[in-house]
Amino acid sequence: MDQEIKSFINDKEFDKVFKKMLCSNLVSLPTEIPEEKLKAIGLIIARFQRLELTIKDFIHYLIDSDLNNKSKTYILLARTSFKNLIEILASISIEQSYNEQENLNFLIDKAKKAEEIRNAIVHSVWSWGIRSKIKVHKNKLVFESENLIADNIEQVADTVYNLRLIVYLNNGRTLEERVNFHIDRSAPIGELISYGPAFYG
Questions:
Q1: Cα–Cα distance list, 47 to 3, 53, 74, 89, 138 (Å)
Q2: pLDDT tens track for 82-104
């Protein structure tokens, strides 16, 4: 990934085209987005991806007792959308008779809303701190435009973090993931520590 980034940045062909187009005035105006909003948007992206990974782990814990090998689960879910992930989680939890199903249903609904808000924020066009989006709703072209407060965006990121934390703590794992107990049923073996009188004095 690091090499890909370097190649993307140090692209001489792009530099040549950019300079040519710049001279022809065929270049868009810079978008001045306040730093605090950029930070908040970045937090939403990063924390939402962690939430997605946690949901994949939850699915794994419900279908496989091997807590240390999640490779097969990750392969199966690699190309699954977030919407389908939570549908899979809902179905498997019911099939496995998960004992906190009511709470899980609530978290799933919260995750759906988180995705809706995340998509609205991430897939919008941002200019000077204004979020705008053009979409088709009920066969009509709809223009959205609003000035979101940076604190509100960051609170969305915090809520996504809290949602991930609750999912993580309630994913059906046992303490065996953190503490392993080993019962040794072999017969005890005596060991000579010292040789001498049993009583002193």
A1: 25, 10, 19, 19, 31
A2: 999 999 999 999 999 988 899 99
